[in-house]
Specification:
Number of strands: 3
Structural class: mainly alpha
Largest sheet: 3 strands, antiparallel
Strand content: under 5%
Radius of gyration: 18 Å
Distance between the termini: 34 Å
Shape: globular
Length: about 210
Amino acid sequence: MEIVQKIKEDILTNQLPRGIPLRQVTLSYRYGVSRIPIRDALVALKAEGWLVPNGKAGVMIPDLNWKEAEDLSLMRAELESLLFSMAFDSICEENIEQARLFLAELDQENMSLVTRGELNWQFHSALYFAANRPTLQRVVEGLNAQATRYLGFQYGPLAYRETSQDQHQELLALIESKEKDAALALLRRHIEQAGYLLTQYLKTVTAE
């Protein structure tokens, strides 16, 4: 697993402290690499929203909060629904089969949260790809990358994994039966429902 992925996984599993500056030398020792790949990894993680600036040149892991989670859910619901609508009539059997492969991988046990988040995006991406709107797809991918920071809650205390997989299967069935309106409604509900449960949970366990 590359350094960026290792740091992400340690953030998700609370192995790295939130709200405390991350030192390159400490991370270099922790992961057994020089400071150059650590520096590059921190730059990449800051760009993805996993880290925030701290001091003149430092970074730290931001606290998780319900407002960010809600914002990500609201943006995803709107933009993914738009992208899916553009893609729907062009989704072919190859796209569906590719999505099924990612869905099957998501059913496996003993998988890191980072990998699970990536596979979840790849499932959706396989369906959105047919829209042929690369700019919009990149924006949506970025939102999904940021939302991965919250998977520890969704697959932990919220126990949302089985519900999510059931909805994925239902979505594919609606695509195959050409039920566009029902598929669009399901996708929006799929994103909004998970976002609502996460937001409400975070309101009870984190400070505003």
